[in-house]
Amino acid sequence: SAAEKGGYDYFMLKEIAEQPKAVADTLLGRIDPSGSLTLDEVRISPSELREVDKVVIVACGTAFHAGLIAKYAIEHWTRIPCEVELASEFRYRDPILDGRSLVIAISQSGETMDTLMALRHAREQGSKVLAICNTNGSTIPRESDAVLYTHAGPEVAVASTKAFLTQLVACYLVALYLGQVRGTKWGDEVHAVIKDLSRISHEVERVLETMEPVRALARSLATKNTVLFLGRHVGYPVALEGALKLKELAYMHAEGFAAGELKHGPIALIEEDLPVVVVVPSPRGRSLLHDKIVSNIQEIRARGARTIVIAEEGDETVVPYADHLIRIPVTPTLLQPLVATVPLQVFACELATARGNEVDQPRNLAKSVTVE
Ligand code: AGP
């Protein structure tokens, strides 16, 4: 009913709008005023966590994209090697697991069969499993050794939005917690990141306030057949997520690429007026990556692409090459997906509406996939 949708036309719009609160709720009570983390729910002891020599993340769809981003954070902040695998592929390739592997299963519903079978396989090999889940008491957390709940509240729309942002927050918390427990890289950078994380819901709010031009752009592309998405580093999974949202909602051909791979094939796809969304990393810090992606934007634009550039406020180098410029707030590199994904959700939702599609119930899809 309209009341359930809180005055919005679709659950998806309501859930997009709820993201600042969902992000804040997922952080609530988990960062103490001194800047250290208390994750009491993680019932895997600090001594066991100190023994971990490999992290393996299993998940599907949007949750898998959260896992891809988590890898960057876990490896950077903890120096523990981390693999990310599609849950549906995991157990069929005889993965190398033992008692020192920590397996993280990410799932909004907690009922995804592929993810459940992957975690069962991991536990059979003696690995500890930590679930990151949004649904209290669902099967995946019940069968795991520990669970960190995301507090996104119920997500009704089939296309995942607020669950994704809170999965990212939970992944960052796990990465930082592992770092804290193991004493690795626990320096100024980590404290600064924790501070930024506790402010991030305001930044998500600011992004939401500036989405009207994104909606107008989406409407203007309603008759296109293809949209490509490019990113690097954590922007690469963001590109994959932008493409998945567009497939699910707009039923358009959409693909995400690592921008560095363009020259190895995908650049052949570029033609006159093809919309290409580019997620630009911050010009601070990893500035080499920034410069490389700016050259990618120039290359595709020279071949006729219509460039839709998502870039940090104050990044002026991209301006001459952006046919459409979407600004996002300045964040630490690893946290950028929390703000960069939001315009892509709004973009896909508006395109679906413009194409007359059912936003909350896309064709052929179910909210939770309980078959393998
Ligand atoms: C996302 O928009 C999808 N509908 C889908 O990819 C989803 O993320 C995937 O099926 C995993 O679901 P889960 O998080 O409930 O396990």
TrEMBL record:
GO terms for molecular function: glutamine-fructose-6-phosphate transaminase (isomerizing) activity. Keywords: Aminotransferase, Cytoplasm, Glutamine amidotransferase, Repeat, Transferase. Residues 45-184, 217-362 form the SIS domain. Coiled coil: none annotated. It catalyses: D-fructose 6-phosphate + L-glutamine = D-glucosamine 6-phosphate + L-glutamate. The active site is at K367. It is an enzyme of class 2 (transferase). Its main location: cytoplasm. It is found in: Cytoplasm. Its EC number is 2.6.1.16. Homodimer. Catalyzes the first step in hexosamine metabolism, converting fructose-6P into glucosamine-6P using glutamine as a nitrogen source. This is Glutamine--fructose-6-phosphate aminotransferase [isomerizing]. It comes from Streptomyces lavenduligriseus. The gene is glmS. The chain holds residues 244 to 615 of 615 of the full protein.
